[in-house]
Specification:
The complex is a heterodimer of chains A (113) and B (112). Chain A has strands at 5-7, 10-13, 19-24, 31-37, 44-50, 53-56, 65-68, 75-79, 88-95, 103-104, 108-112. Chain A is an all-beta fold and 113 residues long. Classes of the chains: A mainly beta (113), B mainly beta (112).
Chain lengths: 113, 112
């Protein structure tokens, strides 16, 4: 089966520009996560979806970050406007509802100049 | 404060030597415990997990980990390291009813 698919894998933008990342979870995985991984650190949860509902977005900086999962499958994470400190890897993961094991995508590496 | 600690930022071992990566956590009750591996440019791959039962768990790629409740530790081990094991390793904990929390990671270098 296909894993968690993320795109783009790499993105370089100038500060104040917008950027969007896309994630397609494993089929049947109704729970979807977006994680932020800064250089030299472990991933940190940004938002968790159960189907199309964001059930935990407490760590999402809502002034510039937004996410959506309109049909409960694919998800998009957007940053507008991007800042230098947003340079990081954005990881998407998915799981069955209530499952304790997450499957991660390869990540989207963002560089903000 | 609740946390996950991986004391070693970098570890270098010779190929064929044994490996132990340390992980300590501070949570009131025993959480679910995981080890993930991340190769350069790749996502995280689950190596093994502990939920309950036997405190020595076997994972993929010849890795194992031992849960020690008295030490709040979940150290990862491998008897003989291969050059392909060079990667970054993350310990993660899932406190009951909460969200997955990762340690800062340990970068493993393998010298030939």
């Amino acid at each position: 089966e296909a894993g968690v698919v993320q795109s783009p894998r790499y993105k370089i933008i100038e500060k104040k520009q917008p950027v969007a990342f896309w994630c397609n979870p494993i089929s049947g995985h109704n729970t979807l996560y977006w994680y932020l991984q800064n250089l030299g650190q472990g991933p940190e949860l940004l938002i968790r979806y159960e189907n199309e509902e964001a059930v935990d977005d407490s760590q999402l900086p809502k002034d510039r970050f937004s996410a959506e999962r309109l049909k409960g499958v694919d998800s998009t994470l957007k940053i507008q406007p991007a800042e230098l400190g947003d340079s990081a890897v954005y990881l998407c993961a998915s799981s069955f509802p209530g499952a304790n094991v997450l499957t991660f995508g390869a990540g989207s590496r963002l560089t903000v100049l | 404060a609740q946390s996950v600690t991986q004391p070693d930022i970098h570890i270098t071992v010779s190929e064929g030597a044994s490996l132990e990566l340390r992980c300590n956590y501070s949570y009131g009750a025993t959480p679910y415990l995981f080890w993930y591996v991340q190769s350069p440019g790749q996502g995280l791959q689950l190596l093994l997990k502990y939920f309950s039962g036997d405190t020595l768990v076997q994972g993929i790629k010849g890795f194992e980990a031992e849960f020690k409740r008295s030490q709040s530790s979940f150290n990862l081990r491998k008897p003989s390291v291969h050059w392909s094991d060079a990667a970054e390793y993350f310990c993660a904990v899932l406190p009951y009813g909460n969200k997955l929390v990762f340690g800062a990671g340990t970068i493993l270098r393998v010298k030939s």
